[in-house]
Write a structure and sequence with these properties.
By secondary structure, the protein is α+β, with helices and mostly antiparallel strands. Helices cover 42% and strands 16% of the residues. 26% of the residues are buried.
């Protein structure tokens, strides 16, 4: 029984005389440098990959005398731009979700129960997302001492309970918050009446009619 022979794949040699000029030219280009340039425009993940491949391409080009240094550097620069732009988009998105307290309207939902009665800025989410509290009434009362403002806020929020669904009026935990005196506009303090199921309970439904 004879043995059949096998042929090993030929390894391309850029200096081989059997290669055509076009093949030899292609072998002189660093594939990592080309890849870095291509993936650099693919957002933050592509930008990170471009930085890694660009750095590897520069080292390999120096060691193997391949072309592509310029492509590698351009790919790394574009990668940095992609990462910066992606970070900017994320920052804008986060900022859009943070609403200044004076912009609150009845029906707005808060992801967490406020830890204090008076705030200047906090996050507002869609009421179809899990949230802890919902604004059910907004009122303005004359500025005064903390005790006077708190007393008027309680009265306003009691009347505002009519905005809640019947089930929410019976089962929700009610509280309020207001802007401190230094934020008062024209001598008026904004009162925000809040309803929720408690600090450790969240819902994805609106409890305001």
């Amino acid at each position: 029984m004879g043995l059949t022979g096998c042929t090993l794949p030929r390894v391309a040699d850029p200096n081989s005389s059997t290669q055509s000029p076009l093949e030899r030219e292609a072998l002189r280009w660093n594939p990592l440098a080309i890849a870095a340039l291509v993936v650099a425009v693919c957002g933050a993940p592509g930008g990170i990959a471009a930085l890694i491949m660009g750095a590897m391409a520069l080292r390999r080009s120096k060691r193997q005398q391949q072309r592509g240094n310029v492509l590698a550097v351009v790919g790394m620069l574009l990668g940095l731009v992609s990462i910066t732009l992606s970070a900017g988009v994320v920052a804008i998105w986060i900022n859009d979700r943070s609403t200044v307290v004076t912009d609150l309207r009845p029906g707005d939902c808060l992801p967490e129960m406020p830890g204090i009665l008076s705030m200047a800025e906090f996050e507002v989410v869609s009421c179809t997302e899990l949230h802890a509290m919902q604004v059910y009434a907004v009122a303005r009362v004359p500025d005064g001492s903390e005790e006077v403002v708190a007393s008027r806020a309680e009265v306003e929020c009691v009347f505002g309970r009519e905005n809640l669904t019947s089930q929410a009026r019976d089962n929700s935990q009610l509280t309020f918050m207001y802007l401190r005196s230094e934020f008062a506009e024209n001598g008026q303090v904004a009162i925000y009446c809040l309803a929720g199921l408690g600090r450790w309970h969240k819902t994805a439904e609106s409890i305001v009619r």
